[in-house]
């Protein structure tokens, strides 16, 4: 896994890591990021993983409110994205501990296997910690043992599996959280 990610700045370049840069998305990135998500959905579906649907707008983008979409650039190409929310009552319900919610983490398949996904996740965790929050939370399909194992291997703790009325009746999400810093508020 790449090291050195996590240089958080309030303005301009959010992260510069060798050939890769993370910046906050603008409206001009929308179509490219939706295309990146559709490519990821096709790839997952071809492997029998029903995580996302082609043409679907990410839930985190539809909800409005306090969320930030970031783009991972390689030169002139958008090769990844991650969205961070400051609350997520639809998935997590009301929470008493302030957290950052990581959604829509995608790396282009042409860059797969290089540790960029884990690097981007680490960057998102650092971004959340720099905001003063002590927890990162995320979700994945409860049926996705591979993703669950991955998140657990990098320190996420399983909280619960949860079904939602807007998902197909037999589908559930696995909810995970990770303590980013020692803080009395996490108890």
Explain what you see.
The chain has 187 residues and is of the alpha+beta class. The chain is built from five helices and eight strands, in the order E-E-H-H-E-E-H-E-H-E-H-E-E. The chain has an eight-stranded mixed sheet with strand order 1-2-3-4-5-6-8-7, sandwiched between helices. Strand 7 and strand 8 form a beta hairpin. It is globular, with a radius of gyration of 16 Å. It starts with 14 loop residues before the first strand and ends in an 8-residue tail after the last strand. The N terminus is likely disordered.
Major β-sheet profile: 8 strands, mixed
Stated plainly, the CATH topology of the domain at 15-133 is called: Aminopeptidase
Span from first to last CA?
Answer: 30 Å
The number of strands is: 8
Unreliable stretches, pLDDT < 50, 5 or more residues? 1-13
Derived from helix and strand composition plus strand pairing, the structural class reads alpha+beta
Rg for CA atoms: 16 Å
Instruction: Report the mean per-residue pLDDT as an integer.
Output: 82
- The CATH superfamily of the domain at 15-133 is identified as Gcn5-related N-acetyltransferase (GNAT)
Share of helix, binned: 25-40%
Shape: globular
Architecture of the domain at 15-133, CATH level 2?
3-Layer(aba) Sandwich
Main β-sheet, spatial strand arrangement: 1-2-3-4-5-6-8-7
Order of helices and strands: EEHHEEHEHEHEE
Number of helices: 5
Strand content of the residues, in percent? Answer: 25-35%
Which CATH class of the domain at 15-133?
A: Alpha Beta
């Amino acid at each position: 896994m790449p090291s050195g990610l996590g240089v958080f700045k309030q303005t301009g370049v959010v992260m510069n890591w060798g050939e890769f840069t993370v910046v906050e998305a603008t409206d001009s990135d929308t179509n490219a990021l939706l295309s990146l998500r559709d490519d990821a959905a096709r790839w997952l579906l071809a492997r029998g993983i029903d995580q996302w649907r082609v043409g679907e707008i990410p839930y985190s983008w539809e909800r409005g409110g306090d969320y930030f979409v970031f783009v991972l650039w390689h030169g002139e190409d958008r090769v990844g994205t991650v969205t961070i929310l400051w609350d997520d009552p639809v998935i997590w319900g009301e929470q008493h501990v302030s957290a950052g919610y990581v959604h829509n983490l995608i790396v282009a398949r042409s860059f797969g296997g290089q540790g960029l996904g884990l690097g981007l996740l680490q960057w998102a965790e650092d971004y959340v910690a720099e905001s003063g929050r002590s927890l990162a939370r995320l979700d994945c399909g409860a049926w996705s043992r591979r993703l669950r194992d991955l998140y657990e291997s990098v320190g996420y703790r399983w909280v619960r599996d949860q079904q939602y009325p807007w998902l197909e009746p037999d589908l559930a999400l696995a909810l995970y959280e990770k303590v980013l810093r020692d803080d009395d508020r996490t108890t």
